[in-house]
Amino acid sequence: MRAGAAVRRARAWLSRLVEPCTLDVWRYVADVGPVDAVCALREGRAPTRVTALAGARVADDQSLADLRRAERCGARLVVPEDDEWPALSLHCLELAVLREPVAPLPQRDRTLQLVPPLALWVRGRPRLDHLVQRSVALVGSRASTGYGEHVATDLGYGLGERGWTTVSGGAFGIDAASHRGALAAGVPTVVVLACGVDRVYPVAHSALFARVLQDGLLVSEWPPGCAPLRHRFLVRNRLIAGLTQGTVVIEAAARSGAQATANRAADLGRQVMAVPGPVTSAMSVGCHELLRDATKRVALVATAAQVVETVGAIGSDLAAPPERPQTPRDDLSDIARRVLDACPVRTGVPPERLAAVAGCDVLDVLRVLPALELAELVEWTGSGWRVTHAATGGAAR
User: Fold this and answer.
1) Which of 71, 78, 115, 351 would suit a FRET pair with 102, their CA atoms being 20 to 30 Å apart?
2) Cβ proximity of 200 and 206 under 8 Å
3) What DSSP string describes 161-194?
4) Domain segments of the chain: what residues?
């Protein structure tokens, strides 16, 4: 089902009228509907508080031009009335709005508000709701290290192999590495922008965005042509957190946008994860602080399997335990280990001597020696028993 032309144009007009996260305007549109809200605003019948938030933009109608501009670059406007709208993913933002007081209060800082988008401009072929249904946000520092970029690429690739979509902001550093990892796995990825979907920001990522558009999506709350203003990146963070099942912070300084995204994810009840780094690295301070914060219940993750286990279905997305190197000693009994440890390296000794060193009975020594010999851990020298060269790993003791 697709929304009617009047509804689509109304939401296109609203997406330029006010900046995202304007709570009172969102509530007014939710109460009366987008078409009636636009008519009331343009005719001066809207509540004074809502009209004041709209300001001088009320007289500027670029909705048709925005829709045409989007069509020229292969984009579309996805609205809550469409089937493609990611209603399930964004439901957490609607619940967050319910926690806000209804009584008139001074408008809070929009960068901290958790308000659903009025509409989303989407560029790319896949359906937005399908891509974000099983998705994880990978975020981190722009000034990333080689370690961070390696981990981000590996996580993006591993998540793609497991059928999960990587969502990030398309910035330098960790964001770009995450997108490239997903693309290397041959799966789509989603870039959430702080500007119009017809603009490439940063400009150096024009080739990356072109590759993303082959199978994935560029998404923005701002109409085509809008510039990447600084505050828009902070507003955009809650959309990255809300669209996904969880947020992984790979590298983050003590104060960073990645930490802000993690905080928005925690506020929305989403799972927050962090990748630990060297304790000497300034780019991992933010990750370590998140892991130390018991109130957020941040999960430590190191692999894509651990990320999927954390946010996936209970019982069906379990990560395999890390492989441990197996040695012949692993299956030995306590007596056998003690006898093996009592055996010298160079000269053989009799069972009586082994029993004295191992602290056991001679009969116990005689009972375990054949099994140790079969495992090629000990050998008979003609005058006594000693450990084999293989059992010591080639090191004398």
Assistant:
1) 78
2) yes
3) HTT-EEEE---TTHHHHHHHHHHHTT--EEEE-S
4) 5-122, 134-194+229-311, 328-387
Show the tokens assigned to 274: 């962090």
Cβ 387 vs Cβ 343: under 8 Å: yes
Query: What is the full per-residue pLDDT of the chain (397 aa) written as tens digits?
Result: 777 899 999 999 999 999 999 999 999 999 999 999 999 999 989 998 899 888 878 888 999 999 999 999 999 999 999 999 999 999 999 999 998 887 666 666 778 889 999 999 999 999 999 999 999 999 999 999 999 999 999 999 999 999 999 999 999 999 999 999 999 999 999 999 999 999 999 999 999 999 999 999 999 999 999 999 999 999 999 999 999 999 999 999 988 889 999 999 999 999 999 999 999 999 999 999 999 998 889 999 999 999 999 998 655 565 566 666 777 787 899 999 999 999 998 889 999 999 999 999 999 999 999 999 998 899 999 889 999 977 766 444 4
- Tokens 């957490």: give the residue: 92
| d(C-alpha 60, C-alpha 359), whole Å | 92
Q: Which amino acid is at 35?
A: V
- Buried residues in 334-371 as b, exposed as e (16+ CB within 10 A): ebbebbbebbbeeebbebebbbeebebeeebbeebbee
Which tokens belong to 224?
């085509």
Dig out the tokens for 45 from the structure.
Answer: 């019948």
The owner of tokens 């999506």 is: 217
Q: How far is CA 322 from CA 30, 135, 158, 319, 325, in A?
A: 49, 24, 16, 9, 10
Please tell me the distance from the alpha carbon of residue 24 to that of residue 10, in angstroms, as a whole number. 17
Burial of 33 (0-12, 13-18, 19+ CB in 10 A): middle
134-194+229-311: CATH topology is Rossmann fold (3.40.50)
* CB of 121 closer than 8 Å to CB of 220: yes
Longest Cα–Cα distance of the chain, Å, equals: 108
CATH number among 3.40.640.10, 3.30.365.10, 1.10.10.60, 1.10.10.10, domain 328-387: 1.10.10.10
From CA 132, how far away is CA 122, in angstroms rounded? 13
**Fold equal for 134-194+229-311 and 328-387:** no
